[in-house]
């Protein structure tokens, strides 16, 4: 699949780090570092503009290394870039640790995953089919 992209940053395009990776790492495009205090969030620019094909979305997901080592995640995880969005890709980072974290220019801050999706048409009905689970919700499948 080819996706049109404009790169206004001075960093390489998002790339897979291993042969079978699902996500491509994306980098911060900063004129100066951003310091995230504990529980603070920031919208971090990437300098990238994408044209996602209709029927697909670009998911923006946290990087496991940043999450594990520094408590850095995404506020809206996964974030979705829709096929009709043409603005700059920005990543909404949050510091969930008890220590400050400094985001540097060029740092790999998130990963991007392309996913196909369906567009649904609602069908209003009076009843739904029966299943063994029924209306059992949160935690109900682990209790017998």
Chart the SSEs and their pairings:
Elements: E1 5-7, E2 15-16, E3 24-27, E4 34-36, E5 41-50, E6 56-61, H1 64-70, E7 72-74, E8 79-81, E9 88-95, E10 101-103, E11 108-116
Antiparallel strand pairs: 1-5, 2-3, 3-11, 4-10, 5-9, 6-8, 6-11, 7-9
GO molecular function, one term: magnesium ion binding
Catalytic activity: dUTP + H2O = dUMP + diphosphate + H(+)
Pathway: Pyrimidine metabolism; dUMP biosynthesis; dUMP from dCTP (dUTP route): step 2/2
User: On the 0-100 scale, what is the average pLDDT?
Assistant: 95
Rounded to an integer, what's the Rg over CA atoms? 19 Å
Q: Do you know the CATH architecture?
A: Distorted Sandwich
CATH topology: Deoxyuridine 5'-Triphosphate Nucleotidohydrolase, Chain A
Helix/strand order, N-terminal first: EEEEEEHEEEEE
In the residues, how many domains can be counted?
1
For the sheet with most strands, the description reads: 5 strands, antiparallel
Brief synopsis:
The protein has one helix spanning about 65-70; strands at about 5, 15, 25, 35, 40-50, 55-60, 70-75, 80, 90-95, 100-105, 110-115. The protein has about 140 residues and is mostly beta strands.
């Amino acid at each position: 699949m080819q996706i049109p992209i404009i790169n206004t940053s001075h960093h390489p395009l998002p790339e897979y780090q291993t042969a079978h990776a699902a996500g491509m790492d994306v980098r911060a495009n900063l004129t100066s570092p951003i310091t995230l205090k504990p529980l603070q969030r920031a919208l971090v620019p990437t300098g990238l503009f994408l044209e996602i094909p209709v029927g697909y979305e670009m998911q923006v997901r946290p990087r496991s290394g940043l999450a594990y080592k520094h408590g850095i995640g995404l506020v809206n995880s996964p974030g979705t870039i829709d096929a009709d969005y043409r603005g700059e890709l920005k990543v909404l980072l949050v510091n969930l640790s008890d220590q400050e974290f400094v985001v540097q220019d060029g740092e790999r801050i998130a990963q991007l995953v392309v996913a196909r999706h369906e567009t649904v048409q609602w069908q209003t009905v009076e009843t739904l089919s029966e299943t063994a689970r029924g209306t059992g919700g949160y935690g109900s499948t682990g209790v017998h």
